[in-house]
């Protein structure tokens, strides 16, 4: 979550010599106790800032190993027109754009959870969240004319491949609408063995993403992506390890009980 509230100002570093002369900090340890919270706060803000990148056009997928999942798409209306084919009249009216986006996604076989109109920096953005049964059926549909995407089994692994590319023949947005970044991001269900130059590597264990500038995307530069995944979901692997640990513990307890009972019987029989 991004911190938007005011930060309370700590003690000024310029005042440190004066405070030291006044014996408010009597040792180097006291000085460290003052500076350490600032260092920790700076580190936390740096980490939070990395997760606070705002995209002008974004596809965000949550995938399962069977290919089903959910997708969120967020973009300004003029970028919906430039990449997904909304008409100029629809893009000029955010309410009409929202209705058109819902219709396009539903006609493509997705189950739409919600379509909302939000604002950021005085600009309108259309957000849609929808679920699907097979990610391999999304490419080329009216909802995703700009996306090629596949998730295929390759031995013991899953192979995620695809690219984003603006379809030809769509209207160009005005120059003022070509700023910012666009991205395609995936929350994958299993361990990532390798990826094709994801901009942030593997984030938080199972997130990979690719991005470029909006200007590059509108100029026709493709955004290619790919990753090699484990065919077993993280949840299934965790449950399997937990079950194996329980079975091992039960076997150990059974072996100990067997040895104790056997030793007791031998002691009762005594020497012959």
Largest sheet: 6 strands, mixed
Fraction of helical residues: 25-40%
Which sequence of SSEs, written as H and E, runs from N to C?
Answer: HHEEHHHEEEEEEEHEH
End-to-end distance: 76 Å
Strand content: 25-35%
Low-confidence segments, given as residue ranges, are 1-10, 19-25, 44-50, 234-244
Number of domains: 3
Helical stretch count? 7
Rounded to an integer, what's the Rg over CA atoms? 28 Å
- Placed side by side, the strands forming the largest sheet appear as 3-4-2-1-7-9
The mean pLDDT is 81
Helix- and strand-based class?
alpha+beta
Q: In total, how many beta strands?
A: 10
**What is the global morphology?**
elongated
Protein architecture, described:
The protein folds into three domains: 14-50, no CATH class; 57-230, no CATH class; 238-265. It has helices spanning 16-21, 28-50, 77-84, 88-92, 94-107, 214-218, 234-269; strands at 57-63, 69-75, 111-120, 123-132, 147-154, 157-164, 181-187, 192-195, 207-213, 223-230. The longest helix is centred in the last third of the chain and has 36 residues, at 234-269. Strand 5 and strand 6 (157-164) form a beta hairpin. It is α+β, with helices and mostly antiparallel strands and 272 residues long. It contains seven helices and ten strands. It has a six-stranded mixed beta sheet with strand order 3-4-2-1-7-9. The protein has a four-stranded antiparallel beta sheet with strand order 5-6-10-8, with no helix packed on it. It is elongated. Helix content is 36%, strand content 28%.
